[in-house]
Amino acid sequence: MRWLLAAAALFAGVALAQTPAVPPAVSLQLLSEHAVEGMNGGNLSGLAWCGDTLWAVSDRDDDVVYRLQPDEAAGSVWQAEADRFVSPPVPDTGLSWGSKARARVSGLLRGGEEDFEGITCDKFGNRYLVSEAYAAVLKLPFSGDPAWLELPSSLLRQARASGMLMDMNALYEGIAIDPEGKRLWLAAERQRRGLLAVHRDASTWKCGDSCVLLSEGGNVEPPAELGDDQPRSPDFSDLVWYGDKLFTLERLEHQICRRSLVNGAAERCWSFTAELLTPERRYDSQYGGLAEGLAIDDKGAWIGLDNGDHARADGDSRPRVLRFAAPAGGWLGGK
């Protein structure tokens, strides 16, 4: 027995030695900040670039995505333009009757039964929305009617076998797709958080060897600037494909991390703590000013804040988009 334990410890040590440590997060430079008008209740829950248009989604709207026209002039206010659609009935994704009933009741009480938490685009102009309430993905094609993707039934089973997607309001929180529209990734929000992947074979979506790239549990300490040293479950609040890498928006830790497409492991992280937690940007409510949307380009990152109709310290109750400069060496530097 002792030699088995010693061997296990040896192999564990080798595995840890082969896993590169993630360098400390480097602070991002804020370039501009923009209030957004015209979104329902300030609930900006996802961002994505599609061609030359920045799109936003609200988790309180089941029938609209918002077109934003970025103006990087300091202090410029953006007007959200509604693009409406009609989605078909949500398919059976394997959730229990109770989960679906709670989603319907929640939608009646607060709005947004489908609870769209993320948006992504392929190079053909097709947009994809992820529904947290129903663990489903809606495709808004460049032309034609919206349709729900037929995701593999094993996706939910494997996620739950890994400890993810177990609690209401802690399901899918982010979505990313490659430019060809053939590889799709989903971010499980928290308790446990993780990354899942499927690929398209002709017209059928399948898992590879496994749907699960990453599953993480445990707790982390929030940034000291929050004034709360109680360890909490880490989370993902959005997901982006850029340069053949995945980028996660990590709400609790106030950072963006670059991750491997192979196993979801973090490679580099960048912090926006210092800018987001300045006195004038603080909210009394724990549900205001949360980093929920992420878009990345060669020049930098756009981070969307969901204020949930709460006012921040300076009295403003509009959602915000913050523009940060790309890190020195670019998002793919320091491989």
TrEMBL record:
Name this polypeptide is given: Esterase-like activity of phytase family protein
A Pfam entry, by short name: Phytase-like
Organism: Pseudomonas schmalbachii
Alphabetical list of InterPro entries matching this protein: Phytase-like_dom (IPR027372)
Keywords of the record: Signal
Record has Cell membrane as a keyword: no
Signal peptide, first to last residue: 1-17
Domain Phytase-like: 42-193
